[in-house]
Amino acid sequence: MVLLALVLACGALVADAVAAAGSGTAATPDRARYDVDLRSDADGSHWTGRQRVSFRNASDRSLHEVYLRLWGNGEDGCGASGASSPVVVSGVRGGTADPPAVDCTVLRIALPKPLAHGERASVAFDVSVTVPDRNARFGREGAFRFLGNALPVLAVHDAKGWHLDPYVAVGESFYALAGDFRVRLDHPSDLAVPATGRTKTRPGGPGRTVTLSVAERVRDFAWAAGPFRTAHRTTPGGVRVNSYWAPGTPAAGVRLTRTEAVAAVDRFGREFGRYPYGEIDLVMTSGFGGGMEYPGLVLLGTTEEGSAIVHELAHQWWYGIVGNDEYASPWLDESFAQYANFRFYGLETRDCWPDVHWPDDGTVLTASMDYWSRHPGAYHLVYTAGPCALADLERALGADTMARLLKRYARDHWYGVSTTEDFKRAAQSMTAADLGPFWKSHRIQ
Question: Any idea which architecture 228-316 has in CATH?
Answer without folding.
Answer: 2-Layer Sandwich (3.30)
